[in-house]
């Protein structure tokens, strides 16, 4: 079976619709065909300041959400990044292979750092995609299921794998990005030209918030001029985004939704989507609470995952260290 690897940050506590439709839904599906490794990337989370107690809690909340969304720890390896020290270790090696200018071209860093003053931007935010490369390469992943915003980071990962292999001999598999086109980028409900992102909270739908609040956000989503419910990403980005979400949550095609709403207005679409979303998140929220009611059991699941992940990660790191010329401990 080919390997899949992906990660999600525990920074916000709740996942949002973009995280789910852009990434985690594919993680669940790939369990059928792949030997999958999924991690809560807490090392990445500290690239911006975190409160220790909140970080610890949000790490469990993230794991609980993954389980509630359908990640099966008996089929996939579910773990916390900091439990596997090889991530940080290979991360250092990858930093030494990355050009300063190359790292500086990462658009996510440019966007995120532009929102803060220079003194608040840590070096970790700059080297974030390099650690991400290590996350992926440690597991010799064939496919990396992510949203469109990660495409550039995946290119860097591929470049670093090739560079290492050229310099030291074939060690890493060069991974392929796995992006599902229809849901690759879910847009902000208040600004449907920008990606839905927890950094800009106004138009974000969170899976763990009160669904009444989500339904209200959906009802007040910015839509477009005109009143026909048709998919037109350039001309009607707001309505198109709602149709994408609706279609992804129900499995109905965009064409059949257009037909169903012909003669109706944006208001009907938004009201119904609020209901569709509520139906989806209500049982999910119950499951998350159940997992969180038994943190001891949850921690055991994560410990088992870390043990399995380490077996693979340690083997890869050992080979990389040898190739580099590090003296093996006697
Ligand atoms: N809007 C989105 N559409 C599709 N996919 C998305 N992802 C994130 N936003 C969207 C995908 O979710 C996965 C986890 O991403 P992450 O852990 O990097 O989450 P994040 O970046 O913290 O989420 P945000 O909201 O995007 O955070 P900020 O505002 O910090 O950038 C990834 O596969 C990502 O592609």
From TrEMBL:
Subcellular localization, as worded in the UniProt entry: Cytoplasm
Name of the top EC class for this enzyme: ligase
Superkingdom of the organism of origin: Bacteria
EC number: 6.1.1.2
Location of the motif 'KMSKS' region: 195-199
Keyword Oxidoreductase among UniProt keywords: no
Amino acids binding ATP: 9-11, 18-19, 147-149, 186, 195-199
This protein's record includes keyword Magnesium: no
Keyword list, A-Z: Aminoacyl-tRNA synthetase, ATP-binding, Cytoplasm, Ligase, Nucleotide-binding, Protein biosynthesis
InterPro entries, sorted: aa-tRNA-synth_I_CS (IPR001412), aa-tRNA-synth_Ic (IPR002305), Rossmann-like_a/b/a_fold (IPR014729), Trp-tRNA-ligase (IPR002306), Trp-tRNA-ligase_bac-type (IPR024109), Trp-tRNA_synthetase (IPR050203)
Chief place of localization: cytoplasm
Gene Ontology CC entries for this record: cytosol
A Pfam family this chain is assigned to: tRNA-synt_1b
A molecular function (GO) term: ATP binding
Residues reported in the UniProt entry to bind L-tryptophan: 135
Gene Ontology biological process terms from the UniProt entry: tryptophanyl-tRNA aminoacylation
Subunit structure: Homodimer.
Name used for this protein in its record: Tryptophan--tRNA ligase
Enzymatic reactions: tRNA(Trp) + L-tryptophan + ATP = L-tryptophyl-tRNA(Trp) + AMP + diphosphate + H(+)
Family of this protein: Belongs to the class-I aminoacyl-tRNA synthetase family.
Role of this protein: Catalyzes the attachment of tryptophan to tRNA(Trp).
